[in-house]
Amino acid sequence: MKIKFWGVRGSIPSPGKNTVKYGGNTSCVSVTAGHGNNLIILDGGSGLRELGIDLMKKQFGADGINPLSMWIFFSHVHWDHIQGVPFFKPLFIKGNTIRLYGEKKVRTCLEDTLKGQQQYPNFPISIEEISVNGAEMTFTDLFAGEKIRIHEKDLIGDVIVHNTKLSHPDGVFCYKIEELLEKEGDSANVNVVYATDTEHRNVLDPRLLKIAKGADTLIYDAQYTPDEYVGAVGMPKFDWGHSTYEFAVDTAVKAGIKHLFLFHHEPEHTDETITEIEKESWNYLEDKYGKDTGLIIAAAYEGMELEI
What we know:
Helix content: 10-25%
Oligomer: single chain
Number of helices: 7
Order of helices and strands: EEEHEEHHEEEEEHEHHEHEE
Strand order of the largest sheet: 6-5-4-3-2-1-14
Mean pLDDT: 93
CATH architecture: 4-Layer Sandwich
Distance between the termini: 5 Å
Structural class: alpha/beta
């Protein structure tokens, strides 16, 4: 399983001289896994544009050969998680197949939200026009606890995408991508958990602990420092739907995670600030749990790649 970060910032893109190291694009992570190297995309923030450019260079020829097939899972539809969709080049290429998944809402659904984003006067090309002249798109509404089986074969090397609801204004889905090396749920399988835009308050979320238990990798929202969260610096961030590096470390240790990636960086945090947060995360881990946890911590940056 290969993972690459295309956008790691939260709330709004933040390009500039102070965000060069970690990047300023909003949430987008690609996971390549299973038979045929299935391309699974987590969220469609502005980082999705960069992923699309890369895909066009590497896999889609100038003569329209090698059509792409992919699965995009949206944690939720706040703008910083969907704003890259209109600029995703593979969307405009006939022959490509793009399957899009998001939580079913009472009043709306993923398809309506993405269509609304590209309605006049917001954007000159509608989803309906793309459907005729561009990629084949399918929209699937997900319910909490539902599993999507890529290719639905349940063979060794196949991929299952799990979800659970977490705490965020208007709701959010956490996803676990499981590549089967044994039967489903076996500890030998490879797992990555994507938990952005979530908040715990004073108690670790049991839903996250359950879905993340024993996973190789946890990508976790650590937008605020502890002082920022409680209001010791600036206004309190209670009920804003984001978390801290302390909760990230606590969750990773309790769930038995091997690699923790701090994600959804605050747009006002500079490269120096995020580097300091990464350092403080290690200090917190060692002070609270000792030096022998086996947990590895890193602040995610654009272009970061790993294989698990």
